[in-house]
Amino acid sequence: MTEYVGAPGSSMSRRQFLAATGSAGVLGLAGCAAPTNDRITASNSNAGTAATQQGSLPTTSPPEVVDVNEQGGSITIESTPARHDVHPLETMGGPVELPQVWAFSAEGGEPSVPGPIIRATEGTEMEITLDNSDGKRPHTLHFHGVQKTWENDGVPTTTGIQVGPGESHTYPIPANVPGTHLYHCHYQTNRHVEMGMYGILRVDPEGYEPADREYFLSVRDWDSRLPRQMAGEDVEYDPRNRRPDIFTINGKSAPRTLHPEHGSPLIVSEGDDVRLHFVNAGYMSHPLHIHNHRFQVTAKDGGRIPEAARHDQDIVNVAPAERYAIDFTADADPGIYLMHCHKVNHVMNGNFYPGGMLTGLVYESVMDSDIFAQLMEYAGYEG
Questions:
Q1: pTM
Q2: Beta strand pairing status for 96-106 and 117-121?
Q3: 313-338 pLDDT, tens per residue?
Q4: What is the CATH number that goes with domain 40-210?
């Protein structure tokens, strides 16, 4: 059981969450039926079978934030085959599962998709070790945004460096470009990222002043045929003919995205200054929209947007590998508001709507309401 709840970043404690919900409020609707499926799609049924066959694999956990400065500037990243529950319930188009992923983990931590959020302060000389001691195939680490030496770019075809099974390699990576960046494996990128080998690198500028609430959100479109193929299913994956069928925020699809411990609900209080960091780790563009709130884009790909160039908006299109920071004030009528991709087919689980790339902006003052309790049941939260 996790100590904190909400999206990675300015998480609240589980004790605070239970106090805000009145705990009985969350459980008060136990037994109410969540929307069920007319049928489970063939791909989801196959995924469930593969998951059974892969029962010996660990299950992924939510991504953790690792402060590299607190670890003397160094971190070790490992890769672990795991099973990934995108939305494990038989409701709202579920279960949605990836029976095998290649998950990153920080040394001593749990495997997660996306991988751990690596956080450092500008000027830190990081040493990031990729430990592939227990691996079965080569991997690398490639970091967007920051400037590093040629041999540490993480691309085996141009550097000659790859980390083979049973090996480890340390990348000296300077935190010299403030901003929110993407990292991923760059060995057979079309396959290894599709298998879940990606994460967020955050470099805080010197003197950084965080918002009252600050959350990290990576979005991704998946072609589940590759993870299913790697798990032993009789399917063919063609990277030139991708057929994305799963759409996630921090590795989960709605309604699991609303789960306070396994998902990424955006919990705010009235008047909070809120900052969201979006990272697109997929291959499609995603126009991300927040209901009833207007925001300003304050940074893109590590570059600050001058105030004179900012304007109020309620949707931002995030292309593959792009990163955006948006700032807004939680000044709407306190309630529960959606944040989602505005491509309707990206907000579905199979043929079921809504689902997919969707989460909620939740005001603390309504967390003791019946509707919030109902949403928690849809998400599978039991208190």
A1: 0.91
A2: unpaired
A3: 999 999 999 999 999 999 999 999 99
A4: 2.60.40.420
